[in-house]
Amino acid sequence: MRVVGIDGCKAGWMCVALERGRAEHWVSPHIADAVRREPAAELVLVDIPIGLLEGGPERRAPDVAARKAPRGKRASSVFSAPIRPALYAPDYQAANRLSRDLTGRGMSRQTWAIAPKIREVDEALRLHPEWRHRVREVHPELCFWAFAGNRAMEHNKKTDEGFRERLDLLAERFPGAEDLLGRIVLWEGRRVARDDAVDAVAAALTGVDPGALRTLPETPERDARGLRMEMVYAARRTFSRVTLRV
Q1: pTM for the whole structure
Q2: Which end of the chain, C or N, has fewer beta carbons within 10 A?
């Protein structure tokens, strides 16, 4: 089985493909290019909200459920996805106003900062409905929580302690992960932050054992475009140990 893990980065999208333990990595300027490059991939797991609400006071079910999973310090890393009308607003002020009008809540500038990438994925799946069964949403902190046996990470991923904590966990569960991360940072360090690299690797590793895949919520709803509103993770009790080769 071939699986691709993708995380947004300053140069576009950090991509890691795994097949039978063999790892490849590259940076793609556009999400559509990354998916198109991998027609044989059965799963493309992306750290970006997929499936958006159109309005209303309720928040997306996966955001609510994922915030309850890695409790404590990491719960705040799961932000609420924007509603689709605000996502397509021309500027932050308009997006914030639309969000308030349609949900009763404003939009944070942090959310607006990644709006172009959310919009890019939303548009790609609108234009390519045939991708919808394999392009699915992950959240790195949920992935690490699952890898650690339902234990949240102690440190922020952007700190040295946080990077080491996540790298040690991956190396323990997946021999060769540290070499893979080292290679990515060596080759792509100028275009990709190290936390983006480790998140892309975690996303790919989440999908290596399809029998271990679970979703939050357990029974996902679909949005107005038919996209599943879910976050995928790997149940530790069932996923397979994989040795990575670079």
Answers
A1: 0.94
A2: N
